[in-house]
Amino acid sequence: MRADLALIQAQKADPLGNLTYDLSARNFNPLMALAADITIAEPDEMVAVGDIDPDCVATPGAIIDWLIAE
């Protein structure tokens, strides 16, 4: 199943697009990011590169096309 666009809500993101999620968002958001041609992520918090532990990254930045910060 493919999608043209995925809108992803993340807990944290760094400027490279690496994302972490909170609670049940980790179940579906990474899958939707992979299934879409264009992925737009809106994180609750932007952090510096290196602040997210690599073991906690649920969606790597290579999959994210756009980040929208508040």
Largest sheet features:
4 strands, mixed
Walk across the major sheet and give the strand order.
2-1-3-4
- What is the beta-strand fraction? 35-45%
**What would you call the shape?**
globular
State the secondary-structure class.
alpha/beta
Q: What is the H/E order? A: EEHEE
Terminal CA distance reads: 31 Å
Number of helices: 1
Q: Averaging pLDDT over every residue, what do you get?
A: 93
| Record field, number of beta strands | 4
Radius of gyration: 11 Å
Helical content band: 10-25%
Ranges where pLDDT stays below 50 over 5 or more residues in a row are none
Written account of the structure:
By secondary structure, the protein is α/β, with parallel strands linked by helices. 16% of the residues lie in helices and 37% in strands. The protein has one helix spanning 25-35; strands at 3-13, 19-20, 36-46, 66-67. A 4-stranded mixed beta sheet has the order 2-1-3-4. Strand 1 (3-13) and strand 2 (19-20) form a beta hairpin. The chain is globular and about 35 Å long. The model has no long low-confidence stretch (mean pLDDT 93).
Question: How do the strands and helices of this protein lay out in sequence?
Answer:
Blueprint: E1 3-13, E2 19-20, H1 25-35, E3 36-46, E4 66-67
Parallel strand pairs: 1-3, 3-4
Antiparallel strand pairs: 1-2
Key words describing this protein structure:
70 residues, alpha/beta, four-stranded mixed β-sheet, 4 strands, 16% helix, globular
Question: Brief overview, please?
Answer:
Helix content is 16%, strand content 37%. With 70 residues, it is an alpha/beta fold. A 4-stranded mixed beta sheet has the order 2-1-3-4.
